[in-house]
Specification:
The structure is a single chain. The chain contains 14 helices and 2 strands, in the order αααααααββααααααα. α2 (10-30) packs across α14 (320-346), α3 packs antiparallel against α5 (87-106) and α6 (108-125) packs antiparallel against α7 (129-155). By secondary structure, it is mainly α. It has helices at 2-6, 10-30, 41-61, 69-77, 87-106, 108-125, 129-155, 200-215, 228-231, 239-246, 256-264, 280-289, 303-310, 320-346; strands at 166-169, 194-197.
Length: 373
Amino acid sequence: MQTLMKERDDELAERLDKILSQACLHGEKQCRPRISLWWSKKLTQARLYRNFLYRALCGFRNNIDVRPAVPARMLSLNVHFEIPNTKESCNTAFKAANQELKQLAKDHLTLRLNEMEERVEMHALAKNKDKAKIVKEMKNQETIAATFRKIRSITRPTHSRGFTSIDIPTSWPEPTDDITSTTSLPDPKLATTWRTTEIPQDVLHYLRLRNRLHFGQAEGTPLTLPPFSTQLDWAASTSTADLILEGDYTNDELTDIQELMINHCARQGPLDAIPAEITVKEFEWRFRTWDERTSTSPSGIHLGHYKALIRPNDAGSTTDEGRQILQARDAIIQARVNLINYSLKHGYSYQRWHNVVNVMIQKDPGNQKIHRL
């Protein structure tokens, strides 16, 4: 990584990015998806007990004495469990606790409702009618919510994995025909006759054609025609772009409307300076506020991997094991930041950034006309 900070080496940067990506995917496979269960004290206690046994068992396996850390952690959580003193007994207790936790997880809703019923009775015996009424209402509402959740899971429509054919206007050319411009294609919204295409390669061809037509609707506007189409590049880094920005661009061939538009493109004040690099603090802040449900890329690396880096974890900084985990976390974050800064400095695009997915969804279920996607 230090080499990249001194000189350009795209091959090394790509290799390091792939190693980090493989590590993220491997780490994800080690994590089991956590099922959303109804909270109950008994289930929470069973989960904590299993976790403490697992921590102690890991200590036995790795010859690390975790006995000082375990009581301290129990004290911070206000719980107390008896942890076996040998590896064999700890392993036996862990297996039994794991089985008990699985059984409790199956009855998570029943446990929740029973505990709430006990709270209602407790408040009633204490002649606290208001609290008993509140807890009873909570129980009724959660029972209704659980019922509707079950109904939704049963009645939820099954979605197909995708459509295998599309309808295109009969006036559209065959896939083998050359198309000089997408603007020459007839508007599918005005089509009256259609034909169905089922060959996968042809379906892909027409979807790409449709996207070119859809995303290229600016074709024919001033900036897509000469002289601007020849004097301006995609990055707006030509001398003409600088003249427009400074308000000094002139061209006798421009119409009054075009000239007015160009005049409005001139900057009105000094441009904000953007730092050439990002910092670790900026990296953590941005991913902390980014919605994890946002889709990113088909590479398999998603926001969950970055969230796992920056979110607090239960690795205590008072133990050697905890400090090692935190140091590894900081090293990975720094490596990510270095790779991003390398890309910014040298204008390099990593291979996994080259692939994107355009999701085509039917606007009307069952309607596979190409303009209704």
